[in-house]
Write a structure and sequence with these properties.
With about 260 residues, the chain is an alpha/beta fold. It has 8 helices and 15 strands.
């Protein structure tokens, strides 16, 4: 275990300055121009790498590229900012809502936004927001590094532990503890054999990539099950029954693959 702590020490002891990559999405070109000018002239930490006036183009770019923060307008034609967020594969970056309307504040928080800027954007408010972006980036980067290091350690020494990041902490679960995982949009809930529920801000496909495929199977668009926890398969009803008597539907598209796996 000593070498892990040495790696962590080296990882977090290194403090190289890196520019944070920003994307601006707003249907008003003048708003984009003004915010880009503020960011480029009054700080040395954020680089605007792309701007978009069309939501669909922004979605494609964000899903295909790594970014650190997104400045997002809400009131846009064809698709509003919240609908855009729903179409993103992940939201590992800082989200900042920029709008002329103040009634979206609560919804912004529910969509994991770290800040909310009212137009016209005040320079002092923007400076505070940049501080929050830096803090978010530091926290996310450190957590991601820890997860990768521990995942590598588990694989190297055949430790069958799954590392879950939730509520600002890392939870370590053995694969035998997990009964099933249920999707809830951008969130997932992990159900364990101890009747516990762990809610994480990851989509189901992200959780699926963390679980060993020899023991887990995505049986439905909304569910991943532990194959070792199946008690019954109700062929006529299209359900599996787990050890805790929870019934999980088997999707028609995945039924043949499930039977082959099972």
């Amino acid at each position: 275990m000593d070498f892990i702590f040495k790696i962590l020490s080296v990882t977090f002891g290194t403090n190289l300055h890196t520019m944070l990559r920003a994307v601006i999405v707003d249907d008003e070109p003048k708003a984009i121009q003004g915010l880009s000018w503020e960011l480029s002239n009054f700080n040395e930490d954020i680089e605007v790498i792309e701007t978009f006036t069309e939501a669909e183009k922004a979605i494609k770019y964000i899903n295909e590229n790594d970014i650190d923060c997104l400045f997002l307008d809400i009131e846009m034609p064809t698709m509003d900012g919240f609908q855009l967020l729903e179409k993103l594969d992940n939201k590992d970056f800082a989200i900042i809502i920029t709008t002329a309307y103040n009634e979206y504040a609560i919804k912004a928080l529910k969509n994991q936004a770290i800040d909310y800027l009212l137009k016209p954007i005040d320079s002092d408010d923007l400076e505070e927001t940049i501080g929050r972006i830096k803090l978010h980036h530091k926290k996310y980067n450190n957590t991601e590094k820890v997860e990768k290091i521990l995942s590598s350690f588990n694989k190297k020494f055949n430790r069958r532990k799954i590392t879950i990041n939730t509520d600002g902490k890392l939870v370590f679960l053995s694969e035998d503890e997990i009964l099933f995982v249920e999707s809830d949009g951008n969130y997932s809930t992990i159900y364990t054999s101890g009747n516990k529920k762990i809610v994480v801000t990851k989509k189901l496909k992200e959780i699926d990539s963390l679980l060993p495929e020899d023991h887990f199977f995505r049986i439905h668009n909304s569910y991943i099950i532990n194959l070792n926890k199946i008690k019954e398969f109700l062929k006529s009803d299209g359900y599996v029954v787990l050890e805790n008597n929870h019934k999980i539907p088997v999707s028609r598209q995945r039924k043949s693959d499930f039977l082959e796996k099972f």
